[in-house]
Amino acid sequence: MTTQTPQNSEHFVNPTRSPTRVAVVCASVRDGRVCPSIADWVVTTLEHTSGVEIDVIDLAQITLPDDSQLYPGGGPESEVAARIDAAGAFVFVTPEYNHSYPASLKRLIDWHYSEWKLKPASIVAYGVQGGYSAIEHLRGVLAELNMVTTRRCLGLPAPWLSLDDADRYVPGESVTERLKLSLAELDWWAGVLTDARADRSFPN
Ligand SMILES: Cc1cc2nc3c(=O)[nH]c(=O)nc-3n(C[C@H](O)[C@H](O)[C@H](O)COP(=O)(O)O)c2cc1C
């Protein structure tokens, strides 16, 4: 018997599925942070994609419970648990701090468990050199949560040099094209995993 590889994603994605809710996580909580400018650029790019609802989870706007109450896979329900649960895909917009991603993002991840499971994520990282260490550290952590990370993730070197007078991030066109490709990959995985979560049990 021969096995044929489908030529395009329509073979996998259920065309009747409802719009994918994409949570864009703005990971920096620092005063004077550049993160919202980059998250806005991601949102604007996503807004041109059909079949997508967007929820921006800005970590500076939420308060997670005290870490003394944390235990594996649970804890008191956080104020964003339902929003993470409702999302079918994530874009983590994160700076690089000391060769990794910030503690604020690790806390968001650790305070949730089933809400992340079997969902896809893409990463837009930035830093002096481009934030690639943050990307690689985050990939390993997301795999532990049974998440799939897109192969294409973006590293932006010194994006603060590309802000306009209104603090909008205005990169070259090729950078936005790279983002679109990673979002297309994310959408593909969102379709596949939404169907899989509904149809197939996952080994515990
Ligand atoms: C505590 C701290 C550590 C940093 N470490 C790194 C680093 O390891 N690599 C890097 O490329 N940039 C590093 N930076 C520079 C940040 O990437 C840069 O300040 C960026 O603007 C931070 O994002 P934010 O403004 O959204 O918080 C560091 C910044 C801070 C505040």
Topology:
Blueprint: E1 20-26, H1 35-47, E2 52-58, H2 81-86, E3 89-95, H3 103-110, E4 120-127, H4 132-144, E5 148-149, E6 154-157, H5 173-199
The structure holds flavin mononucleotide.
Residues 28, 30, 33-35, 95-99, 127-129, 160 line the site of flavin mononucleotide.
Write a short abstract of this structure.
This protein starts with 19 loop residues before the first strand and ends in a 5-residue tail after the last helix.
Observed structural traits:
204 residues; alpha/beta; Rossmann fold; 5 helices; globular; binds flavin mononucleotide
Output the helix-strand order: EHEHEHEHEEH
Global mean pLDDT: 92
Please summarize the sheet with the most strands: 6 strands, parallel
Strand content is 15-25%
User: Roughly how many Å is the radius of gyration?
Assistant: 17 Å
> Based on CA inertia axes, which overall geometry fits?
globular
- The total tally of domains equals 1
The count of DSSP E runs of length 2 or more, i.e. the number of strands, is 6
| Number of distinct helices | 5
Identify low-pLDDT runs.
1-13
* Global structural class: alpha/beta
CATH C-level: Alpha Beta
Present as ligands are:
flavin mononucleotide
CATH architecture: 3-Layer(aba) Sandwich
CATH superfamily: Flavodoxin domain
Fraction in helix? 25-40%
Describe it for me?
By secondary structure, the protein is an alpha/beta fold. The chain has one domain: Flavodoxin domain (Rossmann fold, 3-Layer(aba) Sandwich). Helices cover 33% and strands 17% of the residues. The protein is built from 5 helices and 6 strands. It has helices at residues 35-47, 81-86, 103-110, 132-144, 173-199, and strands at 20-26, 52-58, 89-95, 120-127, 148-149, 154-157. Strands 1, 2, 3, 4, 5 and 6 form a 6-stranded parallel β-sheet that branches. It is globular. The model is unreliable at 1-13 (pLDDT under 50). The structure holds flavin mononucleotide. Flavin mononucleotide binds next to loops.
